[in-house]
User: Fold this.
Amino acid sequence: MKIVVDAFGGDNAPLEIIEGCVLAINKHKDLEIILTGATEEIKKILNGREERISIVDAKEIITNNDKPTEAIRYKTDSSLVKAYDILKNQEDVIGLVSAGSTGAVLAGAIMKIGRIKGITRPALAPILPTKLDSDVIIIDSGANVDCKPVNLLHFALMGSAYYSIVYNKPSPRVALLNNGREEEKGNELVKEAFPLLKNAPINFIGNREGGDFMSGEVDVMVADGFAGNALLKGTEGAVGAVLSLLKKSIKSHALSKIGALFMKQTFNELKNRIDILKKHGGSPLLGCKKLVVKNHGSCKRFNILSSIEQTMLLHENKLIEKIENSLSLLEKAENND
Amino acid sequence: MKIVVDAFGGDNAPLEIIEGCVLAINKHKDLEIILTGATEEIKKILNGREERISIVDAKEIITNNDKPTEAIRYKTDSSLVKAYDILKNQEDVIGLVSAGSTGAVLAGAIMKIGRIKGITRPALAPILPTKLDSDVIIIDSGANVDCKPVNLLHFALMGSAYYSIVYNKPSPRVALLNNGREEEKGNELVKEAFPLLKNAPINFIGNREGGDFMSGEVDVMVADGFAGNALLKGTEGAVGAVLSLLKKSIKSHALSKIGALFMKQTFNELKNRIDILKKHGGSPLLGCKKLVVKNHGSCKRFNILSSIEQTMLLHENKLIEKIENSLSLLEKAENND
Assistant:
């Protein structure tokens, strides 16, 4: 399997990106990687470890300050655009991994790769832990801030297909983010989206509130990218705030400091559970004709390893075909109406 | 000071509501309370403690299952409608406290009391802790799920006036909830709202993300009620989820259990900090001609005490006049343009 990786996207690029690729190459004997970026720098880091890794030179870097569509159009010698060109032109390259600017990754996917037929808005669907043993995804988490009801329907279909692969769960529980559970609740957007989700070929469990996000009763939370982003970031911020308050309080009480020494196992467990997003690598951009996995800008080598493995898993389990199938099921149902 | 309290709103009504009133009466010698609800039941609970407490009989109760506007219109003998009638007709009654259905409290405020001139949408602004020593409010948190840019401007003005009173801070830092900090970020609504907030007589610090909500750098987070609700509930849910994961992990490790014994102080501190919303009572409904404070449905006697005290504080510090003043400042600025 061949995957292209943008070696110069993200805060810790190129070192952590390249080291992540080396980890993946060592772990998966059927994997080949194409790295895009400044050849000399990449070679220096690889330092001879070039087995099944090839390099395509790119002299420019796209940053968060670049306007996404302009960057894709004009920075043709950037590591991201070169990576997209490879994904587009080489049929055997199954996916792209980048930790670069979200906007540019999104723009590149639409401009260079194109959308699955019927999908107007690709979406990002990061994974978060719940308070139980399950995980939850939110789709969309910020790629589409102004949505129509049909976009939410597509998010639901794509999120359901994605979750079912990652967690090997045939009928994940899909909920619509709302400010109350009752069917008549919500803003105009979700009120119109509700019947669409209700009639879709998914396991739709109805409206759920932000407070239900980490409760464990939802697998796929569907939202417009604006509210979804507020929920995702708010959740991450709140988790961080609680841990920060905990740390501060422990530091200020001698007895608590002693207690904390005994609680190493618990703190490690908590950290592992909360870092689920990192464990799973980034978030795939769902709705494109080929696999694109976007990583956190701050990601490290293990996150890159995870993103590469996620790309392999989604390829093996035919994510894109599954999304296409659920769209055609929907179309058939509509034609029968 | 005279306040009317809906004795039959909330999950723990009437007992906790009435006990909260008794606490307030004992603490504040200049306070008088009018309780609305079934006289016999109230009398039984008061059991002679009727000093400065009067009762206005109401035989009906409005529940969460009632349609708000219909309930206000037709359940004329309900504890909430009776309370609103008293607030409306008795000039010396300075405010109303209820833990009943949010929708009905909101509908009653608009239908019975009316809005401050210029304000089209009253809003709820609950308080949350930050990871520093400060607190943050979110406005609107769910009363208005479809908003126009001017509504967000009003939320900003009202939230700023409210925060400045509660925390005795002349220029609270007001931010606009967005999916990024850059001025050009956001959905159509916040893009249009941004310049309005920028030119308003408030300390507007720009766009902030959901992740900044509990960071301590924002005092007043402005959002439409849909995204605001997602952020508020998501934050509450995440805090609860972390604590639940922590508890579960402690229980499953013998050493952690021992550690937890030493950490009592820290756990209490954390609990107190997180329960700030309860400490502060409910959330005022900002934008009405008279003070209305809505409590959590699950509130207990101490929350009712807090809500009553909050009503007194907001009255003494002339919240409504302050909102009116900032509206007229705004109008002047517009006329000078």
